[in-house]
Amino acid sequence: MRKIVIDGYNYSGKSELVSDIQINISDALVFQTFDSNIGEFFMWLYNNKRYRLANDVLLNTVFMKDICNKNVYGEDDNLIIYDTHWLTMFSILPEKYWSTWFPLPKTIICWASGNKTIENMINSGLKQVFCGGVDYNCKLYFEIAQMFICEHIKFIDTTKIERNAVLDQALEFIGCN
User: Fold this and answer.
1) 126-173 tens-digit pLDDT
2) Which long-range contacts (CB under 8 A, 24 or more apart) does 166-170 make?
3) Do strands 107-111 and 79-83 pair parallel, antiparallel, or not at all (unpaired)?
4) Average pLDDT in the 25-52 region?
5) Residue 54's domain is classified under what CATH number?
6) Domain range for 138
C-alpha cells in the first residue's frame, strides 16, 4: 500500500488533481479527511475552542483509515490518496498540536495565489467571495508549506501551470511516470 496526501487551500486545484490521479491510476482509492460527518463534528469542536479534541478526532480518523487500508490491502501496491490532511490541520489548529501529526506522510501541496484562488472560486459558481480571507489563507498555507518542504513533500504552484502539467509533476513525484 502506498500513501500520498494531496493538500492545499480550497480552490487551489487539489480536488482536480486527486480526480486526475484516479483517472490515471485505476487502483487509487481516495479518502476525504473532512468527509461530511467528521468535518461537521471537527468544525463544531473547533468553533467551540475544543482544539485538542478536534485534533484528536481528525488524527484518529486518519489513523483508523490507515489501519483499515493495511488490513484490506496489506502489502499490495495500491495507492491510497488522502484529500486534505496535515497542512489544513496546521492552518486551523494552534501550533502546539502540530507535533501529533509527525512524521509527515509523502505529500503534494497544491497552492495558488490569492488572485488565482478567487478566480477559481468565481469560475466554480461561488456567489460570494471574501477576498481578504482568501488572501490571508493563501499566504498562511504558503508560509506553513515552506516550513516543511523536503524530499517527501512536493510543492506545486498551480497559479501559472496547466492542469496536465500539475498532473505530470504529481505522477512523477508519486513514482508513476
Assistant:
1) 877 777 789 999 999 999 999 999 999 999 999 989 999 999 999 999
2) 166/13, 166/16, 166/17, 166/20, 166/110, 167/17, 167/20, 167/21, 167/24, 170/6, 170/17, 170/20, 170/21, 170/108
3) unpaired
4) 85
5) 3.40.50.300
6) 2-168
Q: Which one-letter amino acid corresponds to residue 62?
A: V
Residue found under cell 468553533: 47
The phi and psi torsions of 138 (rounded to 5 degrees) equal: -60, -45
Question: DSSP alpha helices (H): ranges in the chain?
Answer: 14-24, 36-47, 51-73, 86-92, 114-123, 131-148, 163-174
Is the CA virtual torsion 176, 85, 19, 8 positive or negative? negative
Establish if 38 belongs to a structural domain. yes
Reported residue count of the chain is 177
